Amino acid sequence: MKLWGVVLLLLVSLFTFGCLAHRPPVLDGGSIQINGQVVYWESASFPLWLLIDDQLPPSHITATYDAVDRWNDEVGIQVFEPVLWDLSVAAPRTSGFVVVSVRELGESQHRQGRVLGVAQNHVYTGTGRMHSSEVWFDEDLHESRLLIVMEHELGHSLTLAHDEDDCRSLLHPSVVNCPPPTYIMPDDLDRVRLMTLEVHVSNEDAPSAPLYSFLPDMWQES
Ligand SMILES: [Zn+2]
Question: Cystine design at 131: which of 18, 35, 95, 100 (Cβ 3.0–4.6 Å)?
Answer without folding.
Answer: 95
